[in-house]
Amino acid sequence: MAQPLPQLTFKAVALGIFLAVLLAGANAYLGLFAGMTVSASIPAAVISMGLLRLFKNSNILENNIVQTAASAGESLAAGVIFTLPALVLLGYWDVFDYGWVCLIAGIGGLLGVLFTVPLRRALIVDEPLKFPEGTATAEVLKVGEEPAKGLKVLALGGVIGMLVKFAEAGLKLWPASASAGGWLAQDASRGVVAYAGTNLSPALIGVGYIVGLNVSALILIGGIISWYIAIPIYGNWFVANDPLLSGVLEAGRTSAVDFAFLIWTSKIRYLGVGAMLVGGLWALVSVRSSIMNSFKVRGRPHVAETNRDQADAPTSLVLIGSAVLTIPLFLLYHTIIPHVGIALALTVVMVVAGFLFSAVAAYMAGIVGSSHNPISGITIATILLASLLLLWLNGRAPGNATAAIIIGAVVCCAAAIAGDNMQDLKAGHILGATPWKQQLMQCVGVVSSVLVMAPILNLLLEAYGIGVRTPEQPEALLAPQATLMASVADGVFTGNLPWGMVSAGAAIGVAIIILDEYLKARNAAIRTPVLAVAIGIYLPLELAVPIAVGGLIAWLVNRNADSNPGNKGLLLSAGLITGEALLGILLAIPIVYSGRTDLFAVPESLRPGAVVGLIVVLCVSALLYKTARQNEHEKA
User: Which stretch of 86-90, 446-450, 489-493 has the lowest confidence by average pLDDT?
Assistant: First the structure.
């Protein structure tokens, strides 16, 4: 009988920890910048294959262990940056508290691992869902005989991403976006503007390539709904009844573009809130059968190594671990809201919501993949429901919004890790890996990335700012999800949540769901997942445009192919994302040390402006297309 391949080797664990930390930092930057993160499993697998070949002996299951830990870092970063910056935006924190970040994110991430142990057999073995990214990762690992080629493409993307980001943010040769706008009508009662713009970020093109044309086009459609329908309607008919906006208009001190952003910031983005809320609830309804089935499935206890491909972590460990992790959460809630009963109720709500939404995230990952998982909608639904519960139990007492955000943060981290965990377990199932060893490495990846999240976030906060762009911090990272979470939680308790806009957004969400169900019934090639449109409504239009360009490139590459986007295109895209994100973090260090954001900037007279930045981005887009097409030709 053949000896089983080693999996939990020292070099695999060490490399997994290193990549978990690296990719957590990169995705933290990307998520704060664009409000989206992408799966790190494939690039982690390629890097792992390249580095492990430097050792005398390595095997495919070691590679799988490395990518399991590394992708956990990326997923945990998503859970953290979607929620915890809201505590800074609400003024509860001045900086990211190291102990609290470790506690909230660590407990949420570990619960996400534990909650999915009893779901593995139900969703991967008994109900074999596709888990597209897990399947793709397994295929990448299978064909890893020549990882150097993939590593070169990934490195090329990383270098390009870093150079372009340094030219824009360091040397300041061109602005972060190219935009134009003008007044169509302006008087004391109304202000209608025309606006067009695009962000000059190669990373966003990479995001669009990875998520594909369907999703990226829906994000752009959401932006069109927001910027070319909702903003003109509000500017033409409702500004006169809005004291803030009419006052700004009467003062005559704002440009058309700034006024459009003001309408979007104060009103229109809440359409996205309503659509995301409906999307999150619909996700629950869509997977209700699988959630109920998951309660009937018990994780098998650890079995003999001869059955290693079915050996989950022991059920007793799952139950005991989940119970132990709730104790510090109860103490945390009790420090915010001294009432013992309310703190206990919040803990129960968090555990129940955490399990339910982890099941939703795991199931949705099996259908659409981790990158498309509706974590934002899930978290918004959690925070809104927690806020309404607190309003009922505790009135408008101080600390309510903070408690609601922390509940959302724990659930968000758990759901993000749950979806990622199932992708990794799917890859392991295909390759014959041992589930409990992967579940252990997920925990290792969670703990490793948790330890560096607060320093990275504080570095970005001090160097760029988070949430609001001001003259002092003109390049602040928008953190769209965290800003949204803060607005929802605070709006419930202050009464400032524009429920009319939220309701209109919910109606848009319902209409999109009806259309999606119609397309599903017709077995249409395209679908309209509501959360993709909701993200587009909530994001600035300038971010949706390059994402759509990336999706269009993916479609052009694959329109005559039966396969998914070629691995070279995916790897170059991942390199663009990682390179830009890492340069953003590295650039933050001298900015914080010197206190200057223009430390490397060239004189204004030497700056060519947005046109050159646009040309550079077009060249990167052409390179992405060419690289991906080369991959298709090789396969042919």
Answer: 489-493
Residue 583 · residue 165 · CB < 8 Å: yes
What does the domain layout of the chain look like in residue ranges? Answer: 10-146+292-484
pLDDT for position 507:
95
First to last CA, the chain: 38
pLDDT, tens only, 544-561: 899 899 999 999 988 765
More confident residue, 205 or 467: 205
CB 554 within 8 A of CB 135: no
Alpha carbon distance 203, 26 (integer Å): 11
Report which residue type is found at 73.
G
Residue among 504, 565, 563 at smallest CA distance from 213 = 565
- Residues in Cβ contact with 162 at an 8 Å cutoff, skipping those fewer than 6 apart: 579, 580, 582, 583
Q: Is 155 within 8 Å of 575 (Cβ atoms)?
A: yes
Contacts of 39 (CB under 8 A, 6+ apart): 71, 74, 133, 210, 369, 370, 371, 420, 423
Spatial separation of the C-alpha atoms in residues 546 and 550, rounded to whole Å? 6
Task: Give the contacts of 444 (CB within 8 A, at least 6 positions apart).
Answer: 13, 16, 17, 20, 69, 72
Local structure of residue 26 (DSSP, 8 states): H
What value, to the nearest 5°, has the Cα angle with vertex 207 and ends 205 and 212? 95
pTM for the full predicted model: 0.74
- Give whole-number Cα distances, 257 to 195, 230, 421, 469, in Å: 6, 15, 43, 14
DSSP code of 605? G
Do 263 and 234 touch, CB atoms closer than 8 A?
yes
CB atoms within 10 A of CB 125: 12
User: Which of 61-65, 255-259, 370-374, 613-617 has the largest mean confidence?
Assistant: 613-617
- Residue 338 is classified by DSSP as -
pLDDT digits (tens, 9 = 90+) for 479-491: 877 888 888 888 8
Residue 306: which pLDDT band, with cuts at 50, 70 and 90?
Answer: very low
- pLDDT-wise least confident of 102-116, 144-158, 281-295, 617-631: 281-295
